[in-house]
Known about the structure:
Strand order of the largest sheet: 2-1-6-5-7-8-9-10-11-15-14-13-12
Helix content: 25-40%
Number of strands: 20
Number of domains: 2
CATH architecture of the largest domain: 3-Layer(aba) Sandwich
Structural class: alpha/beta
Distance between the termini: 55 Å
CATH class of the largest domain: Alpha Beta
Amino acid sequence: MKKLDLHTDFQLQEHSFTDVNELLSFSKKNYPELYLFFFEWFNNKSFVEVKTSGSTGKPKAIKLKKAHMIASAIATSEYFELQAKTTALLCMSPNYIAGKMMMVRALCLGWHLDVVKPTNHPLKTTNKKYDFCAMVPTQAHHSLDYLHRVKKLIVGGGDVSEDLVGKFQKVSSAIYSTYGMTETITHIAVKKLNNFKNGIASEMKKSHYKTLPNISISTDERGCLIIDAPTISDKKIITNDLVEIISANEFYWLGRYDSIINSGGIKIIPEQIEEKISKLIQHRLFVVGFPDTILGEKLVLIIEGSKNEKVIETINSFDGLAKFEKPKKIYFLNKFIETETQKINKKETLNLLINNC
């Protein structure tokens, strides 16, 4: 393929570069992890190898076309109105798609990119203001006192709790939740999380995802999302995400098809139960189905933290849960196991729970 060019406005840690070789030399000396990606990006291959996060299955390496990654970067810049010389902060691992795409946007669009270690407190190590940043929910939660220094923030890689959304209402930044995966080269849709005109309760109820440019959506016979995005994928992407289509470019996300619990003939979407319980407590949590001789599967809730009888009582007495939605058993674990991208690794966490029982 034709060698990719380095945008003349691109900066890394306030350093400008006359050519690719100068960037490679600088990054190799100062930022080895970034150098590995830059070296791959500017080689003669038409693709980049990227690892999936492993949150919904075993991590795997997939090949993404550089042309598709550039198209994704352009779509993001158009949607969020981010021009050359946009100041951006990379605070996620450069080994996964979210981090790689921040670098692609900067390289191709001429952004001024700063880099910090992917910790839970990414804004503590810098006093600068930024036009754009991407975080996982945990990072956003720990950065609430600093988010005013980011004009536009996208939050992805995990569920954003209602409690966190409530706290976002006190932040002046424009904050969005993203929908996407490695196969879609990060987000293909976003939804607003703050700065609502008519109050959070009414607005969040109506809040839904809107797709980026050049993306069509539909559903299969299961009710799962199909993504047709020719600028970022050569074929349609069939997901396991249950959705409700609102219009040609809008949808509600309901949950994961492969996590549905069949309890006594009633199909339960765990994510909907988790959303309701998250209104009651601030701990991280998730629900799963455990084998049951009578029901087939019984609804079980796992909460991060020490056992708390008050929390159990609050959940059991909550009238916002239908009878079949109330957990048959509640377990506590001091610490959930996470993937490298800071998502809850449900499979490994469950194994830990089973081994401790």
